[in-house]
UniProtKB/TrEMBL annotation:
CDD domains: 45_DOPA_Dioxygenase (cd07363). PANTHER family: 4,5-DOPA DIOXYGENASE EXTRADIOL-LIKE PROTEIN. GO terms for molecular function: ferrous iron binding; oxidoreductase activity, acting on single donors with incorporation of molecular oxygen, incorporation of two atoms of oxygen; zinc ion binding. Belongs to the DODA-type extradiol aromatic ring-opening dioxygenase family. Keywords: Dioxygenase, Metal-binding, Oxidoreductase, Zinc. InterPro entries: Extradiol_dOase_DODA, Xdiol_dOase_suB. This is Aromatic ring-opening dioxygenase, catalytic subunit, LigB family. Its cofactor is Zn(2+).
Length: 262
């Protein structure tokens, strides 16, 4: 079986589910361009835990982990099945790599998971297993989690990290728009693209010191950490392909990355 790529997706606002825009178009195109996976393992920036935790539900619920949005959004469901056997396999791989992992038999799919999955595979007919991230342990830990899970790509599993390439929600009140972009966004995403193209993993792992406007683009780490997981899952010689999906609201860059072996 040909190894699948791994993906990093900027999932944007929950409203992306109803107003998919450019990211919806790009994800639909991406699904058509890739082999169909037998299952999906997705790490969302919205499921945080102190140690890696894998969702083992047979029928994971659609979690509406937000408020203040239209009623229509709360009625959206993504009824994909789970796959307990894949959850157990992920736990096995992480434990073997020295990353003690828990299994949660009740965890559902938060909007960082179901919103992009609904755009990739709208029929919800591919089993999905969620995975937590560890915001206190930093990029290198998340990269090692991805490396431990790399064998899944050769087993027909699509590994996805879902976050946001820039994520500073304080800027909702800053007056940015499509006509008035936040000045830090393009320098930051350009630096990420440059380092990924060069395969400079060490610089990327040290992004908070080295990247321009890093703390402005990410006051906290959690929305960029899934990038490192997806990068790690692609293997040591990963090739990164950036897919431009625009900049929402003038400050939320919607970049998607497809990582594949060179």
């Amino acid at each position: 079986m040909t190894a699948l790529p791994s993906l990093y997706i900027s999932h944007g606002s929950p409203m992306t589910a109803l107003q998919p825009g450019q990211v919806g178009e790009r994800l639909a195109e991406l699904a058509q361009a890739m082999p169909r996976p037998r299952a999906i393992l997705i790490a969302s920036a919205h499921w945080l835990a102190r140690q890696p935790t894998v969702g083992g539900a047979l029928r994971p619920e659609t979690v509406h982990d937000f408020y203040g949005f239209p009623r229509e959004l709360f009625e959206v469901r993504y009824p994909a099945p789970g796959e307990p056997a894949l959850a157990a396999r992920a736990v096995e791989l992480l434990d073997r790599a020295g990353l003690p992992t828990m299994l949660d038999p009740r965890q559902g799919l938060d909007h960082g998971a179901w919103v992009p999955l609904r755009l990739l595979y709208p029929k919800a007919d591919i089993p999905v297993v969620p995975l937590s991230i560890q915001p206190m342990l930093g990029p290198r830990h998340q990269y090692e989690v991805g490396r431990a899970l790399a064998p899944l790509r050769e087993e027909g599993v699509l590994v996805i990290g879902s976050g946001s390439i820039t994520h500073n929600l304080h800027d909702f009140r800053a007056g940015f728009s499509e006509e008035n972009e936040a000045p830090y966004v393009r320098p930051f995403i350009g630096w990420i693209e440059e380092k990924l193209a060069a395969g400079d993993v060490e610089a990327l792992l040290d992004y908070r010191r080295q990247a321009p406007f890093a703390e402005r683009a990410h006051p906290t780490d959690e929305h960029l950490l899934p990038l490192f997981l997806a990068l790690g899952a692609a293997g040591a010689e990963a090739r990164a392909e950036r897919i431009d999906a625009g900049i929402d609201l003038g400050f939320l860059a919607m970049d998607i990355y497809r990582f594949s072996a060179r």
